[in-house]
Amino acid sequence: MAAISLHSAFGILHETLGLRKLSARWVPKALREEQLVRRVNLSREPLTKIEANETGFFDRIVTGGETWIYRYDPESKIQSKQWLPRGSASPVKFKAERSARKVMATIFWDSDGVILTDFLEGARTVTASYSGTSIITTLNLTTLDYNNLLRRTIRYSTTE
């Protein structure tokens, strides 16, 4: 072990050598070369249409997102901080665990706003089939209406 202080080591690393400590950036998964090329091409396509000033381009985009929502998500210790007068006793916070039960919340929207909000219970996942069925059911569309919606909609998918 080196016989220098932590402060000295920090100074050498940061100031003298110009290094900084960074955390790795999380990515969903390692992509193959063809997947990376596909993502770049999918990203460039809308930019081309925007630059070409294509009429109604944004009106034809429908996108969505998903997130897990826990049935019970306790306040963190920091969130439960309180302003108290000097000398008063500290409040007590019991450690609570997030509930094991959770729901997958999905939302789809276009340039006019939210089209669909849905909640999936259990271990179900969001698939193209689920998305289509949900939109048909929620918007009370016939299959013909749904096909017309798909025809006017630009769909971009970055997954294989």
From TrEMBL:
- This chain belongs to which protein, by name? Transposase
Q: Which GO terms describe its molecular function?
A: nucleic acid binding
